[in-house]
Amino acid sequence: MNASTKTEPAPTQAALPEMLTGAEIVVRALVDQGVTDIFGYPGGAVLPIYDALFHEPRLRHVLVRHEQGATHAAEGYARSTGKPGVVLVTSGPGATNAITGIVDALMDSIPMVVLTGQVPTHLIGSDAFQEADTVGITRACTKHNYLVKRIEDLAGVLHEAFHIATTGRPGPVLVDIPKDIQFASTTYAGKGGPQPHAYSPRVKGDPNRIHEAVELIAGAKRPLFYTGGGIINAGPKASALLREFQALTGAPVTSTLMGLGAFPASDPNWLGMVGMHGAYESNHAMHDCDVMVCLGARFDDRVTGRLDAFSPGSKKIHVDIDPSSINKNVRVDVGIVGDLANVLTDMIAAWKSARRRDDATLTPWRAQIDQWRAKKGFRYRPSETIIKPQYAIERLYALTRDKDVYITTEVGQHQMWAAQFFHFDEPNRWMTSGGLGTMGYGLPAAVGVQIAHPNSLVIDIAGEASVQMTMQEMSTAVQYNLPIKIFILNNEWMGMVRQWQQLLHGERYSHSYSDSLPDFVKLAEAYGGVGIHCDRPDELDAKIMQMIETPKPVIFDCRVEKAENCFPMIPSGKAHNEMILGEEVQDIGSVIDDAGRKLV
Amino acid sequence: MTIEPPASAYDMTHAAESEQRATFAVVVDNEPGVLHRVVGLFAARGYNIESLTVAETDHSAHTSRITIVTSGTLEVLDQIRAQLGKMVSARDVRDVTRDPLGIERELALVKVLGTGADRAEALRVADIFRARVIDTTHESFVFELTGAPSKIDKFAELMRPLGLVEVSRTGVLSISRGVM
């Protein structure tokens, strides 16, 4: 983390602990935690902390334009580095504006520490100016939260907040600090002081269950790895172990939206994403496998589709660090609570300790998968006159393959196309809002990623509707010289809403069209960035190259086919093997029944 | 193509499975908001709370004990237990109902108004249930009764025709037998 501060010997080892103000303790605790960057917005109730920041060169503060932007930037930072994202905002509206990103981080298990200012303790409960019951409001949307009412508790709480945010199933932890606590003084004992809770999540898997799981995998004729964001959260080591274990077992691999990159998309055993808009071969493999190995995924409804028809013939193994994820939506045969890097190490050892099956036993399964692959579920009708959104992503991928690239997305059709057509060979390269589905995530997330990786190519694959929700962060990108690329697939519609209205609501396009849109080129210029417009397929490559080569923030207004739908698709209330392909669609409305129509 | 409705996470029900009651004893750090965390968890995930008691139980260790009576299918009860265990403030979660060593007790205060034969009968019933009279006037009794929740239900049922006007119950408390 912050090697320079750690290697220097403390000047006076045996000296008494220093007296510091609460605000200074906050800043010191951040430095002691190895934090180098924080995302925030000042206000009355955090002014003492901002004052302490003023004198602290080891912390870079990134001034966002809206507190929601700070939280998503922290998420992008965290997801792309494996380090916790840190947010600093003021009381009242500062805290409430941050809520969306806090919930997003909770849903996607992103380690994040949010520091909020609060009115002075003696004013709490008096409806003071910019007072909100921040801990009350965020109790349901944080992994844990604190209101610090005694200066003596502050350091312990801050260090524990980092511990809780980053261990076990990661998540957002909020510390609400009243202004008088920021001014009060006490001794600061560093990281080693007492912490309020006895929190120690289980990381080591039960050896008997691991043995059972390995036996099941060894006996499988149609095994499948179904991996999720948990692999990414368990660190690069877990991704490496997944690759090793896959090579030993020969099982094909699919992944949730959140897990893309843990297993290389260039590997022949990679099937593509699973779920509602996942690969045809992945979903059929999920349905027909005989042993499913779920690693750090949570059987989300976007993945399972119809539950009573979910992978009916398989024995299921589920490894997760969160005990409550096991048997929550789907009953599994072998549940293992533990950290994936730990459990995979043990699984590999158990596999190697016994003679294992002949790889040829998987030949029929591979042949079956090849048949599904031959369906080419992602194909679309190309056009020479209009840019197809899928084509735009394909070209973006092709033209950035040799680059050190990080992708963020907003939420909607473009997000699914990005997941389908942009391929990842490494973890931590793909930042998207999976659980909460937050439109407006991608642009500020790109800001966070670029802060962490200043020399990399960071692209927000966006929709014109989503990106306007947090467009103001373009100003942040310009201020910090962050050359993020906002690649907008502009179809003038809230595309996924339009798709559902077309397919499920009798083509009644209720309020999903934007009758007025900004001129994105001028908008980029107004912010001090660069705008690029493209509406012709034959110009696309050159303009994408122009975007890549521009050392400034770019908004790329890519005008695409307006009525393109995202396929393949498992309609609501359907099973994996009832997935529909693009060309099969005449009237999806007739395929989905009333019950399915009520689902989201 | 026709599909049998309905099925998805959104309409996952356990209607076909039988629900059962369970009592969870949760030892938590005694800190502000901890009760809200537990109650909020139940509300957010749609679990029932049939009764709930909470009090500090170990001042030096700074712990409180929350006893919650809830109901659900076995799957839901497992989920409740896991969700409670996940709370940072929770030190220990026990399913007392499914623990053969578990004991559950509740205390009730029961007010009965009446005169004449009903009043005499109320006193007799109270005697059978080993309820104590802790307040009396010429027209009223307040009984104090401890026991399993079913015993208190039964007592109230018998008192109803005898002039029962008010019942106050603590909710269930629990502990395990023996040296554990």
What would you say this structure looks like, in words?
The complex is a heterodimer of chains A (600) and B (180). By secondary structure, chain A is of the alpha/beta class. In chain A, 38% of the residues lie in helices and 16% in strands. Chain A has 24 helices and 20 strands. In chain A, the strands form 4 sheets. Chain A has a 6-stranded parallel beta sheet, with helices on both faces. In chain A, strands 11-10-9-12-13-14 form a 6-stranded parallel beta sheet, with helices on both faces. In chain A, strands 16-15-17-18-20-19 form a 6-stranded parallel beta sheet, sandwiched between helices. In chain A, helix 5 links the parallel strand 4 (85-89) and strand 5 (112-118). Chain A starts with a helix and ends with a helix. Chain B has 180 residues and is α+β, with helices and mostly antiparallel strands. Chain B has helices at 34-44, 74-86, 116-128, 149-159; strands spanning 20-29, 51-58, 63-72, 90-95, 102-113, 132-137, 140-147, 164-169, 173-176. In chain B, strands 5, 6, 7, 8 and 9 form a 5-stranded antiparallel beta sheet that branches. In chain B, strands 2-3-1-4 form a 4-stranded antiparallel beta sheet, covered by helices on one side. The longest helix of chain B is centred in the middle third of the chain and has 13 residues, at 74-86. Chain B starts with 19 loop residues before the first strand and ends with a strand. The interface between A and B is large, with 43 and 29 residues.
